[in-house]
Amino acid sequence: MSVASGYIEDEVTAEGQVVDESFYYASQWELIRFRFRRHKLAMISLVLLIVLYLLAIFPGFFSPYSAGRRFEKYQQAPPVSVHFFSENGWEGPFYYGYGRELNQQTFKYEFTENTDNIIPIELFSRGESYKIWGLFETNIHFFGSKEDGPPLMLFGADRLGRDIFSRTLIGARISLSIGLIGVLLSFVLGIVLGGISGYFGGLVDEVIQRIIDFLISIPQLPLWMALSAALPRNWPVLKTYFAITIILSVIGWTGLARVVRGKLLSLREEDYAMAAQAAGASEGRIIFKHLLPGFTSHLIVSLTLSVPGMILAETALSFIGLGIQPPAVSWGTLLQDAQDIVAIAHQPWQLIPALFVIVTVLLFNFVGDGLRDAADPYS
Question: Which residues pair with 95 in a beta bridge?
Answer without folding.
Answer: 119
